[in-house]
Amino acid sequence: MNSIVVSSLVPVVVLIAAGYLAGKRRWIGGGAVKDLSHLIFLLLAPALLFRAMSTVHVEQLSLKPVAAYFIASGLLFSGTLALRGFNRTAAVIALANTYSNTVMIGIALIGLAYGEEGMVVLLTLISLHSLVLLTSATVVLELAVAREQAGASGTEKRPSMARTVIRALRNAIIHPVPLPIIAGLLFAQTGLAMPEAIDKPIQLLGQAFGPIALVMVGITLALTPIGRHWRGALTQALVKNLLHPLLVAIIGWLLGVRGIPLTVMVVAAALPIGANVFLFSQRYRTAEDLVTASVVVSTVLALATLTLVMMCVQWLP
C-alpha cells in the first residue's frame, strides 16, 4: 500500500521541485509567472476540462457516493467561510480545504489500489468535481469581489443583492473554468464524436496542464518568501488531508454508502490540495503565498496521511 502511494506522489513532488529549481536559478523570472498563469488558466485548463466532460453521460453516473463527497465538502467549505468571514481570502482557503488533486494523483492511485471498479467510482466524481467545486467557488469569489468593490466605491447606495448575484453567476459561467466544463457536458449529451483532428490537439493541451501547473507552483515557491507561512500551510494540509476524508466517511456512512464506493470517496477526499486552488489564488490575487505553501505541504504530507487513510478504510464494512 505504501509503495502505491509513494509511486503516485513522487512524480508530483518532483515536478514541484523542478519548478523550484527553475525559480531559484532564475531560469524563469517573477514577471513570467503571471503570463504562465494566464497560459494555464485560459488555455490548458479549459482544454483539459472540456475533454474530460465531453464523454460523460448523465444517465450513467452513480450519484449517491458523489453526493456524500459534495455534502461533506459543502459543510467544510461553509464552515471555513463562517470562521473566516465572507471575503476572497476565506473563499480561496475554503476551496483549498475541499479541492482534491483527483486527476494528477487520484487516477493512478485509485487504479492501482482498487482496480476497474474503483476507477468507475472515481471517474464519476471527476466528471463533476470541478463543475461543482470550482463553479461554486467562483460564484462565492465573484460575490466577494462585488461586495469589496461596492464597499470601496465609497457610495452609500450599493447594488442590490439580486443584481450582485446575477452578475456573479454570469461571471461564474463565462469563466475559463466552469464554461468548458458546461460546454463539454452539453457536447457529450449530443452523442457526437469529436473529430480526431480536433480531439488530438485538445488532448495534448490538456495533458500539458498538470505538469506545467505543478512546475509553476514550484517556481512561485522559489520566488516568494513563504517560511512565515509554514504553520498556516500545515494547518491547511491537515484539514484537507485528514478532516476532509473524515467528514466524507461520516456523511457517506449516514447515507448508506458502503464498500468500494465509500472507500474511493474517502481516499479521494484524502488526496492533497489540487493545483487549481493555486490558480484561483493567482487569479483573484489573494493568499498566494499561503496557498503555494499549502499545496506543497499537503502533497508532501500526503505520503504519510494517504497511507494512514488507506489503511483505515480497510476497516470499513
TrEMBL record:
Its main location: membrane. One of its GO terms (cellular component) is plasma membrane. It comes from the Bacteria. The chain crosses the membrane at residues 6-23, 35-54, 66-83, 90-114, 120-147, 168-188, 208-226, 238-256, 262-281, 293-316. Belongs to the auxin efflux carrier (TC 2.A.69) family. It is found in: Cell membrane. The lineage of its organism: Bacteria, Pseudomonadati, Pseudomonadota, Betaproteobacteria, Burkholderiales. This is AEC family transporter. It comes from Variovorax guangxiensis. Keywords: Cell membrane, Membrane, Transmembrane, Transmembrane helix, Transport. InterPro entries: Mem_transp_PIN-like (IPR004776), Na+/solute_symporter_sf (IPR038770). GO terms for biological process: transmembrane transport. Pfam families: Mem_trans. It is a multi-pass membrane protein.
